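User: Structure please.
Assistant: Input sequence and predicted structure:
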Amino acid sequence: MNAALPTAASGTLPWPAAEFEARLRAKEAGYHIHHAFNQRLNSGALAPFQVRGWVANRFYYQQAIPMKDAAVMSNCDDRETRRRWALRLLDHDGHDDFAGSHAGGIEVWTQLGIATGLTRDELWSQRHVQPGVRFAVDAYVNFARRSCWQEGVISSLTEMFAPKIHADRLAGWPSHYPWIDASGLAYFRNRIPLAQRDVEHGLEVAQGWCDTRAKQERALAVLQFKLDVLWSLLDAVERAYPDDMATEKRP
């Protein structure tokens, strides 16, 4: 996977910190908030089976996040970074009594699935997961396993763009999809402040590690790779649940 990502010629002066961050943030143009399927999802244009299809397939990504985070941490030789990064695993896997606010993002996403009409077994069995989704998500986890920890951190900087997509769902879904119990939307609400915290750490790592133009270019390529993973996930879901699909077919 690493060999597919380009590097810049050495010897070029690095961009100033503000310009580098601006270039990272400009990658928002390729974020899956702009994917046609997401735009239809958040505008209320999808049928229930399509919403459920997205929720079931996205769950495969949700389950993979702590595995990706564990891979990043396993490659990290900096104790303070590991201490901060470990919070991400707990955010998704849960902690303490694993109840209520301690349940973790995977369990909260499970509740979203149940609110859309899926069963817990449908989600956890992965029976609805499309091959393209599995391939894209597994590629992301493998990237984190094989890359240096700094690149693993940088790949997570798609969190810069996540609060807007979550806010759109919170604003529109209650009226667009009144058949979904509003309590199921807790995942989107919970992720907004956590994403902001994670972005601060991610940018700190990126700015500290990318002390050459070559590393800065590499960081942009890594972030693009992650954007491609998310885009590919929606491509696979969109193909799997066309408008003319029989609505009685699960999900």
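The domain at 13-240 is CATH 1.20.910.10 (Heme Oxygenase; Chain A).
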